[in-house]
Amino acid sequence: MTGHVALLYSIVLTPERRVVMADLRAMAKELGFADPRTLVASGNLVFGAPPRMSVRAIETRLEAAFAPRFGRHVDIIVATAMDWRALVAANPFRAEAEAAPTSVHVRVMRDRLPPEAANGLAPYLTQGERIAIVDGHLWMHFRGPLHESKLAGQLTPKRLGIGTTRNWNTVRRLGEMLD
Length: 179
Hints:
Blueprint: E1 2-8, E2 12-14, E3 17-18, H1 21-30, E4 34-38, E5 44-49, H2 55-70, E6 76-80, H3 81-89, H4 94-99, E7 104-109, H5 117-121, E8 130-134, E9 137-141, H6 157-160, E10 163-167, H7 168-178
Antiparallel strand pairs: 1-5, 1-6, 2-3, 4-5, 7-9, 7-10, 8-9
Helix pairs in contact: 3-7
């Protein structure tokens, strides 16, 4: 088995109901994935999968099992352990992340963004925010509260494609879980 990370786009099924991480782990185990573990209650799963199983096949399998079990489709983005370690190493705002881990976020993309996608987001940068597209993922450094950012409202699947955002603490800790 090789290590993988799965990120759920949104685990709020209704205003009153969230996905329980024990249920998510149980689903992964029932699908044959090894040693499923979760990080915080926000849809982060680390597990082992057969080495020959593609990332897309894993995403499809997880999404297909998720909908009937939890009553709603959720996009799930999967990365191999090797790809996740490369993502961690590629952080272009490392000094900022070490100083204030929740100020740096990355939108992990299913299909990689082209570098020029940053141009379409530039008009929404405020309060000294910065962005960088590295290996097709969108890295962001926020200097103010996220809810006050004009950029945050642009991080939608309609605008960027399927992806999900995690802060540096989560990205780093998922990397540690893979070790």
